Every structure is written in structure tokens, then in C-alpha cells.
Amino acid sequence: MPELAEVAYFLSRWNPGLGQKIEKILIHPHARIFRGTDTKKLIAALSGAKLERSESRGKQMLLVAKPKKGARAWLGVHLGMTGELRVEKAGFVPVKHDHLVLEQAKRTLVFEDARMFGRVLFAQSAEAPDWWTRQAPDLLSREFTEKALGEFLKRRKSAPIKAVLLMQERFPGIGNWMADEILWRAEIHPKQAAGTLDAGMTNRLYREIRWVCREAMRIIGKKWGDPPKSWLFPHRWEKGGTCPKTGAKLQHATIGGRTTCWSPGRQVLV
DNA sequence: TCCTATGTTGTATG
DNA sequence: ACATACAACATAGG
Fold first, then answer.
1. Number of other residues whose CB lies within 10 A of the CB of residue A52
2. Which end of chain A, N or C, is less packed with Cβ atoms under 10 Å?
3. pLDDT digits (tens, 9 = 90+) for A23-75
């Protein structure tokens, strides 16, 4: 479910817990979301720790806590396909898919994930761990340049552009719906080989990546909201959905392993 | 019953 | 070593 802006929104739900102590941790230690993570260490470090701050980058989230003793605790959370963060009352009793629960005096912070494609990472160290610092630059930062985009497209020259946009190593936060929204706005067919985009197409792609990221953050990131009818977003799963720009019947196919939606006539292979 | 789902990753192949 | 394609993961809902 969550892409760039949904992740930012879900993380913001936990804001009331920042600056507050974690009284107790409740987890499902064998849940798949903890694969590769030492849950005993996680519980030991976070129990009684003060939750200091949080940040999101693309689809990744980081929560920083100061344990009662020892170095900083770093909790990484990825929501996968069905993950969600929510806040419940103090004393809340976790239900089936609530795999990580942080109890505080005045509220309970909950990470639920039915399908468990999400992931929790943990480290205790003076500096932020590699899995957090070693990430691609934010798409809205100055580091993400049109030149960097062009170079990446050349390296992934024979893959369909739709599949390339899903690569988190270059486009952190972009997921299935954002990729389709961007290509639709840039008037590029999702099957177009990445290496065949000319300068004009690359420029449009660059601008629409930035535009969709910025607008999604504005509409969804702060306070959950729906993109307007002028976007592809509300039409892409509609039965018999039509393009809000041309009125053409939207087409669907599996591209890059994912169901893809585009507007024929507007997005054509060249 | 069968199909689908806003994601990543391990593995096979070129 | 690098790029690409795809099955696998696990659950719920139409």
C-alpha cells in the first residue's frame, strides 16, 4: 500500500509519541517482519528508552531512541505492501496483525502488517547504521539531478521504463501507482526501453517525477487525502476507467512484474 | 474457487 | 560483474 507520501503520513501518526518514554514493548518475535533482526536486543534496548525523533526517506522510516543505558537505538521500519502505523489508547491490547507495539504512558504506538512483506531493522550504536545512511538521495533534493536520471536510464537501457522507476536504489519512494502517474503525465509509454528516451522525454520524466513527489507529499503526506479526479490515480482501478486528459479507455497490462495502467494514444511507444 | 493487491528479494539466465 | 526477469513470500477481500 504505502509509497513515498503514505509512508510520511503513517510516520507522522506516531509524532505524539516523540519525546516520550517507551514503557514496554510487545512483539510477535517470530513474525516475518523481524527476519534477520535480533528481537531480544531490540526489546532490551527500547524498554524504558525515550523516543527522540523520527524521519522517513522514500519508503524507509527511522525511529531514534535513547536507551536507559548504552548507545543510541535505531529502529528501521518498512511497511511493505500492507503495513500501517497507528496510535491506540494506553493499555491497548494488540490484535492479530499488530506485530510491534510500543506502550507509552499516554498512548500505544502500533505497527500492523497483515501480509508481513514489511520489515523491522534494529541497531544500537553511536552513529546511524549503514542500512539507514546508505540510501539514494531524496527525489526532491538537489542531489537528484536530470543528469543523474539520464545516466541511470542509460545503464538500465533495455528494461522498460516502468520497471526502472520502481528501482529504489535510484527512485526511493516510487511505487506502482506513482510510477504510472509519472509516466502518464510525462506522456511516456510504460514499456518504452529506458535507454531509448531522448532528451525531451528525459526532461519531461524528470519534471514529472519531482512534481508527483511534491504534490503527493502535499496532499497525502501531512494529512491523509485523495489526489483529485484530474490525476490518473482515482481512475486507474476503476472498471472501464477513462483517461482524465483524453477520455480514452485506460489500458492495463503486466509490465515489470506489476499491473500497469496507461492511456493509449497519449502514451505511445516510439 | 480463483484472482487480485500502493513491495522486496533470491535465484536463474544472458 | 552486471543487467534483466520472475517466482516466492503471506493474508484478505472481491
1. 14
2. C
3. 999 999 999 999 999 999 999 999 999 999 999 999 999 999 999 999 999 99
Residues paired with A60 in a beta bridge: A57, A78
Instruction: Note the pLDDT of residue A239.
Output: 87
Residues of A (180-239) placing their beta carbon closer than 7 angstroms to any atom of strand B are: 237
The nucleotide whose C1' lies nearest the CA of A114 is C11
Using the CA of A113, give the nucleotide whose C1' is nearest: C11
For residue A37, how far is the Cα from the chain centroid? 20
- For residues A165 and A183, the answer to whether their CB atoms sit within 8 Å is yes
A218 contact partners, CB below 8 Å, separation of at least 6: none
Structural domains in chain A plus CATH codes: 4-133 (3.20.190.10), 146-262 (1.10.8.50)
Task: Categorize the per-residue pLDDT at A1 as very low, low, confident or very high, splitting at 50, 70 and 90.
Answer: confident
**CA(A156)–C1'(B14) in Å?**
15
Under DSSP, the state recorded for A92 is P
A81 closest-nt by C1' vs CA: B7
CA atom of A170 to C1′ atom of C12, Å: 32
Q: Closest by alpha carbon to A65, among A112, A114, A25?
A: A25
pLDDT, one tens digit per residue, over A202-251 is 999 999 999 999 999 999 998 999 999 999 999 999 988 999 999 999 99
Cell of A17: 509519541
Reported pTM? 0.96
